[in-house]
Amino acid sequence: KKISDVLQKSAPKPGVPADLQNLLTQHFGENRSVIEIEELQLSDSCFLPANDLTHSFSSYLKEICPKWAKLRRSHKEKKSVVMLVLCSSALRCLELIKSMTAFKGDCRVLKLFAKHIKIQEQINMLEKGVFHIGVGTPGRVKALLEQDALCLNSTKYMILDWNWRDQKLRRMMDIPEVLYKHLYMLYSVYSLLLLVVLRSWSVKFSFC
């Protein structure tokens, strides 16, 4: 059966923390020890309520981040963003950037995808300017993290574009090449979380 055939018969439902954690366990379970797999498990307190499919993107962000204006004003760090939004493609990134106008206010948004944008351009922008929101694809975000061009010191929210489906009815996690890059990028983030969460750094995951 094709993915689209299966998904067409399934009713849309919001993502939950178990969805993401099960994907990580299934993908890394064969080449990680039991202890390493256990360390990948984050508590439910690390996750915000998912979009119940009744919200627009802007209204959903307003609900989960009511103090955005204060966070935006206090953010001064280069090479980092307060909110990181992950999507399946460059076109979807552009759609979300346009749709968050009512939420973002007076802030700078950085496009973190490969289409028509060289990675060196993004590295230069991160080094020279302060950006509040990054919207990108797992592959490019993973590459920037690996080159230390993007850090998560100031990141408070990681939004996964979980519910949206493309023309073939595939969600972000139903596309093999996106899933692979996404999981390895998240593995790096999870490892970082486990190292610094005890140092009072907090980042919240959310499914939009």
Automatic annotation (TrEMBL):
Coiled coil: none
InterPro entries, alphabetized: Cms1, P-loop_NTPase
Keyword Translocase applies: no
Pfam families: CMS1
Keywords from the UniProt entry: Membrane, Transmembrane, Transmembrane helix
Transmembrane segments: 178-198
Any one of the GO CC terms: nucleus
Protein name per Swiss-Prot or TrEMBL: CMS1 protein
The species this protein was found in: Poecile atricapillus
